[in-house]
Each structure stands twice: as structure tokens, then as C-alpha cells.
């Protein structure tokens, strides 16, 4: 153990720029994994991730590399998920590193996600090493892209590595620059043991496996640990390092990256961002501090994950309700950010109302339920979490289902979540994007030209407007060239109303939605029209109405069957019947 020989780094990249391929190549070229064991993209180890080509859960790997100076270095690669929904996880894994490889596709250039991740890395004071990937492609323009990186991010690109993760070009140069440019972990403070959790997952045999970076002190097998935020305590059965398969060790010290497990039953006990300390050191100091004070200072940056998007999940076949409950429970074991509670609906029967970090998170869970647990689902339209302040702000109600939205009194205000959104686009599409932003109640904050032909457009925009096909619209209006990235900023007062749907004069709470008053009519019409298509005809006329309170804002009706059916009986067209 020599902390000076440790380099902790992660790879940041826009989706598809080659992060996983490069990670594979680094493991392969350092013989961390024998070629025989090498399955493609080892770090993305969930099937679904591999199929969709996105990284959802973080993993880590330790690489031993003998550099040109003859010394052997221990490089810890910490993988990061590649999607906006998981930006908190990204920020925590970056906080566990001293450096980051910034992988940019030399045929594409900088994208919104590249920028967002670079800013996260710079906020965490990381040394960012740019790498131009895919230089084997005929369309690669390394000079142009290097200039773009210099001008937009301000990184020195004079000796930027030209690489191809696919063809194995530049891999040695990348390893050398990690050793030379990424600083070793800072010297330990000499204080008690503290480690940052950057990932955890549930294993059926061993319980929760926790991945962490040691910041201070030392941990040994058999120690008892405490997780500061959850206040849970557990005996450690095993600690070890990822090579990338888990290999037990006796001890881990400041600067090292490793895993532990020990009969931890719930991922909520050991959440990403929490600080691990040793119970004995904690107890020893407890006597010296006041009641509400933590005897060991938690590492900065812990945040609870709060679901931002909700939807109802109902089994198509009512007999699947129990299997759905069990399946959600199993998925939750591995996913502290997933929440669910039972919901009943007159129209759809028994189901669950589920909370997710965002749309992708929601998609992934739905798909796993259908694919791994074979449950066919009816999914209600997603909605965001609103708030209502009553009695001039004295009381706050969280609205995670449209049917929970109360009628507002004169002193009540409704609030909705806003995000700050950065869109990167070829400048010719600026107009189209601004039009879209306006349609979605966005507040234009800034337009910047990164280069003469590329711009970033910054909006503050309601999350509720983003989760309904914003991304699809953005792509289709810019022919796929724009990319976007957003993060929640705050809740803002808004003129929101609950739009109820009545079918045959009966309220259908599961179909209600919360909308801005200006859009109520438009949304109501759309809802009524699509319900008209969906609901089968009956023997009698069925009215469908969208209402705000008692006021009807849109209506349709489903014609009775009789005329058509009879027309068919007479074997002729309408005119004949008439
Ligand atoms: P996410 O996991 O979705 O974030 O993507 P990623 O950044 O990990 O990209 P991934 O490694 O999955 O690569 C995306 C695609 O680019 C794959 O089809 C790779 O085969 C291809 N690719 C990666 N590196 C190179 C390269 O150097 N040259 C070429 N031609 N293709 C590459």
C-alpha cells in the first residue's frame, strides 16, 4: 500500500461516444481480465443496459499498470451512469475520484451531456483529461473537435490523446496520462475512518454490497460499521477490491476503493452519498459531543433521492396483482430511488402508484417488470410532483397524484417544479428550439455561441412540460442534432388546475391530470379525443367530458352502436337504411 501510487478516475462522455468500449480496452490491455473472460462491455453488466446501450448502475474496477517509469500503479476506474436521471449518482462517483477522462467522439464533437458532466467534474475539482475517441472513423475531425474542446471548456488540448477504443489505438497513451496527470489521493488527515458510498446493490446471498472510497483512516474485515445518514449499524463480513470481480482483502486504507458486505438487508441503509464510519470510533467520540451533533463529520454532498415523476402501474390481468407487488419489492431492493404504494381505480382495478427519478428510470422499471417478471401493464400518463401551500404558506401538501390536488382557496397557492435546461444545437435550429421552448412555457435565459455554428440555449422550464415528449419534439425539430440536459432548480408558483375526466357523467380519478390553466382546454380536447378512440361503443350514447371543477372545458361522445349494426344487418349502406 502506497497512496502515492493510487489514481482514482472515472470516464465521462456523452451517450455512445465510447465510454464502455474504452473501459473494456483499459482492462484488457492491462491484463486485468484475461481475454477469455472478456465479454464485451464488462462494466455494463445488466442485460437491459447492454441492449439499450446505456449505463444505469455504477461499477468499479481496479487496474494494475506498470508505467514507463517502471513503477506499478493502482488505477481505480469508477464507472458513471450516462443519463440525466442519475446525475446525483454521477456526482457522487466523481466525488470519489481525483481525475476524469473526458471522452469525446471525434466525429461528433461536444454534446450537452459532455458539458454537464465536465461541469460536475470541475465542481468536484477533478483533473479532466480530454481524449478524442473514434479517430478510426473516416468522418473523424480531430482538429476541429480539439478546438471545440479548447474553446468551450477551456482545457488545454495541445497534447490531446487521439484514440480508438474499438481499434485499440492510443490506449497506452491514455494510461500514461492518467498516471502523470491525475493527482494521487490527498494525504489522510489522521482522523477516524470515513468512506464515501458511490454505489450499492442487493445480492440475494450476501445482502447489500456497498462500493466506497476511503477518505480517511482504515477499515478491516470484522469491523462494525455505521452509515451516518441512515444511522444503521452492521458487522462487516467481507471487504475487498474489484478486479473487476470481487476479491477479498484484509484492510482498506485512505485513498483506496473497495466493497463491503455484511448482512445488510436494505439498500436504504447504505445509500449513495452516505458516509461510512466505524462504530467503535463513533461511540468513542459520542460522549464528547452534544446530543444532536454527529461525533464524526459526514463527508459533504449527501442528498436523499426524491422521486420527481409518478405514474400508475396496473396489471392488465387482475390476477397478476400479487406478482406485481412481489416484483416491485424485488426491484426496490436494488433501487433506493424507486417508491411505490397501492392504488385502486374504478376503471383499472388494483395497482400501484410509483415514483421515479425521471422518465428513463420509469422506462427501465416498466421494461424490467414486463421482461423479467412477465407482467403486462397498463401505465397511466406520468405526472410530476406538485405542491400546494395552504393558509398563506403555513401548511404544505405534496401532490404526487392528480386526484390528490385539492380545490384551491383564495389564500392557497400551487407550485410546480422547474428545471434548468441546457440545449446544445447547430445554430440553424435556434429558431425552432425557441418556438418549442415557448410552447412549453419555458423562460429563455441565455443563448450562447460556442463556435460560429453551434450554440447552447438555456431555459428555465416546468418539469411537467419536459416529461411529455419534449425530447422527441426537440429531436424531430432539429433532425436529431440537438442534445439536452437538465436539472431540477426549484418550485415556482403557477396557475395550476385539476382537470377531471368524466365518462358517462362519472368521475375517473386515475385519468385526472394537473395542467396549467392556459392549457386546460387544449389538453382536455386531446384527452377526450383519444378516449373516444379507446372506449368501445355501447348500445347507448356515452358522453366524455373534461372539467375544471363543475365547468366543462372539452367534450366528446361515443355514438351508440345501433345504427351501424342495423345498417350491416340490412346488408347495405347508410343511405339505403335511411
Ligand atoms: P453509453 O453506455 O450508452 O453511455 O455509451 P458509451 O459511451 O459507453 O458507448 P459505447 O462504448 O457503448 O460505444 C458506442 C458505440 O460506438 C458502439 O457501437 C461502439 O462499438 C462504438 N465505438 C466505441 N469506440 C469506438 C471507436 O473508437 N471507433 C469506432 N468506429 N466505434 C467505436
Automatic annotation (TrEMBL):
Principal cellular location given in the protein's record: mitochondrion
GO biological process, one term: positive regulation of translation
Domain of life: Eukaryota
GO cellular component, one term: mitochondrial inner membrane
Compartments where located: Mitochondrion inner membrane; Plastid, Chloroplast
Residues engaged in binding GTP: 13-20, 79-83, 133-136
Matches recorded under SMART domains: EFG_C
Domain Tr-type G: 4-186
SUPFAM superfamilies, A to Z: EF-G C-terminal domain-like (SSF54980), P-loop containing nucleoside triphosphate hydrolases (SSF52540), Translation proteins (SSF50447)
Function: Promotes mitochondrial protein synthesis. May act as a fidelity factor of the translation reaction, by catalyzing a one-codon backward translocation of tRNAs on improperly translocated ribosomes. Binds to mitochondrial ribosomes in a GTP-dependent manner.
HAMAP family: LepA (MF_00071)
Name this polypeptide is given: Translation factor GUF1 homolog, mitochondrial
Species per Swiss-Prot/TrEMBL record: Fistulifera solaris
Amino acid at each position: 500500500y502506497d497512496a502515492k501510487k493510487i489514481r482514482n478516475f472515472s470516464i465521462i462522455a456523452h451517450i455512445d461516444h465510447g465510454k464502455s468500449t474504452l473501459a473494456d480496452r483499459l482492462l484488457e490491455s492491462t491484463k486485468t481480465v484475461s481475454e477469455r473472460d472478456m465479454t464485451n462491455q464488462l462494466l455494463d453488466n445488466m442485460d437491459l443496459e447492454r441492449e439499450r446501450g446505456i449505463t444505469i448502475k455504477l461499477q468499479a474496477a481496479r487496474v494494475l499498470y506498470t508505467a514507463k517509469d517502471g513503477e506499478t500503479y493502482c488505477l481505480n476506474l469508477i464507472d458513471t451512469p450516462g443519463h440525466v436521471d442519475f446525475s446525483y449518482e454521477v456526482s457522487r462517483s466523481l466525488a470519489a475520484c481525483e481525475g476524469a477522462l473526458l471522452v469525446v467522439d471525434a466525429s461528433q464533437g461536444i454534446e450537452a451531456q459532455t458539458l454537464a458532466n465536465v461541469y460536475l467534474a470541475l465542481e468536484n475539482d477533478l483533473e479532466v483529461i480530454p481524449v478524442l475517441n473514434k479517430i478510426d472513423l473516416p468522418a473523424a475531425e480531430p482538429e476541429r473537435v480539439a478546438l471545440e474542446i479548447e474553446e468551450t471548456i477551456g482545457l488545454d488540448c495541445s497534447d490531446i490523446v487521439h484514440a480508438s477504443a474499438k481499434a485499440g489505438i492510443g490506449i497506452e497513451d491514455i494510461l500514461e496520462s492518467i498516471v502523470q496527470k491525475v493527482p494521487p489521493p490527498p494525504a489522510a488527515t489522521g482522523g477516524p475512518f470515513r468512506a464515501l458510498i458511490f454505489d450499492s446493490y442487493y445480492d440475494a446471498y450476501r445482502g447489500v454490497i456497498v462500493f466506497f472510497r476511503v477518505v480517511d483512516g482504515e477499515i478491516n474485515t470484522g469491523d462494525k460499521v455505521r452509515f451516518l445518514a441512515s444511522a444503521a449499524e452492521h458487522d462487516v463480513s467481507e471487504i475487498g477490491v474489484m478486479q473487476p470481480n470481487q476479491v477479498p482483502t484484509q484492510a482498506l486504507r485512505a485513498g483506496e476503493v473497495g466493497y463491503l458486505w455484511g448482512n445488510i438487508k436494505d439498500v436504504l441503509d447504505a445509500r449513495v452519498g452516505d458516509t461510512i464510519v466505524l462504530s467503535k470510533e463513533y461511540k468513542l467520540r459520542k460522549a464528547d459531543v452534544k446530543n444532536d451533533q454527529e461525533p464524526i463529520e459526514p463527508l459533504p454532498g449527501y442528498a436523499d433521492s426524491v422521486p420527481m415523476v409518478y405514474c400508475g402501474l396496473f396489471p392488465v390481468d387482475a390476477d397478476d396483482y400479487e406478482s406485481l407487488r412481489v416484483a416491485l419489492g424485488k426491484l426496490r431492493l436494488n433501487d433506493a430511488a424507486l417508491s411505490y404504494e397501492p392504488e385502486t381505480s374504478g376503471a383499472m382495478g388494483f395497482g400501484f402508484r410509483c415514483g421515479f427519478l425521471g422518465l428513463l428510470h420509469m422506462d427501465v422499471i416498466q421494461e424490467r417488470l414486463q421482461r423479467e417478471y412477465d407482467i403486462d401493464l397498463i401505465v397511466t400518463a406520468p405526472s410530476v410532483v406538485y405542491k400546494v401551500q395552504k393558509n398563506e404558506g403555513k401548511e404544505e401538501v405534496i401532490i404526487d397524484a392528480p386526484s390528490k390536488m385539492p380545490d384551491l382557496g383564495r389564500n392557497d397557492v400551487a407550485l410546480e417544479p422547474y428545471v434548468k435546461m441546457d440545449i446544445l444545437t447547430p445554430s440553424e435550429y435556434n429558431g425552432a428550439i425557441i418556438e418549442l421552448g415557448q410552447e412549453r412555457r419555458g423562460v429563455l435565459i441565455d443563448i450562447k455561441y460556442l463556435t460560429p455554428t453551434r450554440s447552447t440555449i438555456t431555459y428555465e422550464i416546468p418539469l411537467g412540460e419536459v416529461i411529455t415528449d419534449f425530447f422527441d419534439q426537440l429531436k424531430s425539430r432539429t433532425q436529431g442534432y440537438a442534445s439536452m440536459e437538465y436539472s431540477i432548480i426549484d418550485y415556482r408558483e403557477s396557475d395550476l388546475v385539476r382537470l377531471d375526466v368524466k365518462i358517462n357523467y362519472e368521475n375517473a380519478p386515475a385519468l385526472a391530470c394537473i395542467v396549467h390553466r392556459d392549457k386546460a382546454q387544449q389538453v382536455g380536447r386531446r384527452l377526450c379525443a383519444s378516449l373516444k378512440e379507446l372506449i368501445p361503443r355501447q348500445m347507448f350514447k356515452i358522453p366524455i367530458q373534461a372539467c375544471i371543477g363543475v365547468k366543462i372545458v372539452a367534450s366528446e361522445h361515443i355514438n351508440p352502436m345501433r345504427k351501424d349494426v342495423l345498417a350491416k344487418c340490412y346488408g347495405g349502406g347508410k343511405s339505403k337504411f335511411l
